């Protein structure tokens, strides 16, 4: 999500993007960890919800199906994955708005969002970009707003650590280092959020996914 539009595709290589949904759905407990994220988010009627790094829109579609009285905005930097998201949204005729994002400042007003949600995106960012992203989340959130993310967290076992090396090979050791070392809560708090809680951990063949609840 860098401002110069250099970014790591969802599975490192653009040619893998078309099978992203199949891979994540097959090799990870996707529905379970995204359901846990949305349970924590408690999206209510008339909420304004931003899906940061919307990807193929699976999370936004699940959120809409849980509460279709909220408004959903999905942003992503990757044109190819946005095209897949658009097809899925149009196929189900859902009012989820997709926005092409070039990195940096979010294209939304201050205090305009009730929730920011995100799945398997933050680990694509350098530590500096992580800080920039969370500062932007804080800017666009209403005072009562919250951030809820699913992303790689500190492995729960030696086996989970070994599994995570494949993710690091694909997505980069530099960007994933803070996740695997358990430093993501520290980075988030440095941007002004008061509380960061990992409410669930889900183990998979690729490593441990944490569900982060972030309160201002």
How would you describe the overall organization of this protein?
- This protein is of the alpha/beta class and 216 residues long.
- The protein has one domain: Vaccinia Virus protein VP39 (Rossmann fold, 3-Layer(aba) Sandwich).
- The protein has eight helices and seven strands.
- Strand 4 (113-119), helix 5 (127-140) and strand 5 form a beta-alpha-beta unit.
- Helix 6 packs antiparallel against helix 7.
- The protein starts with 19 loop residues before the first helix and ends with a strand.
- Residues 1-5 have low confidence and may be disordered.
Describe this protein with a few key phrases.
about 220 residues; Rossmann fold; 8 helices; disordered N terminus
Using the coordinates above, name the CATH class.
Answer: Alpha Beta
Q: What's the CATH topology label? A: Rossmann fold
What is the number of E strands? 7
* CATH level-4 homologous superfamily: Vaccinia Virus protein VP39
Distance between the termini: 23 Å
Structural class: alpha/beta
Q: Level of helix content? A: 25-40%
| Shape annotation | globular
Strand content: 25-35%
Could you give the order of strands across the largest sheet? 3-2-1-4-5-7-6
Number of helical segments?
8
Task: Describe the sheet with the most strands.
Answer: 7 strands, mixed
Element pattern in H and E = HHEHEHEEHEHHHEE
- Number of domains as seen in the coordinates: 1
**Roughly what is the average pLDDT, rounded to an integer?**
90
What integer value in Å does the Rg equal?
16 Å
Low-confidence stretches: 1-5
Give the name of the CATH architecture. Answer: 3-Layer(aba) Sandwich
């Amino acid at each position: 999500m860098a401002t110069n539009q250099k970014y790591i595709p969802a599975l490192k290589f653009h040619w893998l993007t078309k099978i992203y949904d199949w891979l994540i759905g097959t090799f990870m407990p996707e529905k379970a960890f995204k359901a846990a994220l949305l349970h924590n988010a408690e999206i209510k009627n008339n909420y304004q919800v931003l899906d940061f790094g919307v990807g193929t829109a699976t999370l936004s579609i699940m959120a809409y199906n849980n509460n279709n009285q909220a408004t959903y905005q999905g942003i992503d930097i990757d044109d190819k994955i946005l095209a897949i998201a658009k097809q899925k949204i149009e196929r189900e005729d859902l009012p989820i708005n997709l926005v092409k994002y070039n990195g940096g400042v979010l294209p939304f007003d201050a205090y305009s969002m009730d929730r920011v949600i995100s799945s398997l995106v933050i680990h694509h960012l350098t530590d500096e970009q992580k800080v920039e992203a969370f500062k932007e989340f804080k800017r666009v959130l209403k005072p009562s707003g919250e951030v809820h993310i699913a992303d790689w967290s500190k492995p729960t076992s030696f086996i989970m650590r070994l599994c995570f090396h494949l993710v690091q090979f694909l997505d980069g050791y530099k960007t994933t280092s803070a996740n695997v070392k358990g430093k993501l809560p520290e980075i988030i708090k440095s941007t002004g959020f008061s509380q960061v809680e990992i409410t669930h951990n889900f183990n998979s063949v690729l490593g441990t996914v944490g569900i982060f609840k972030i309160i201002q």
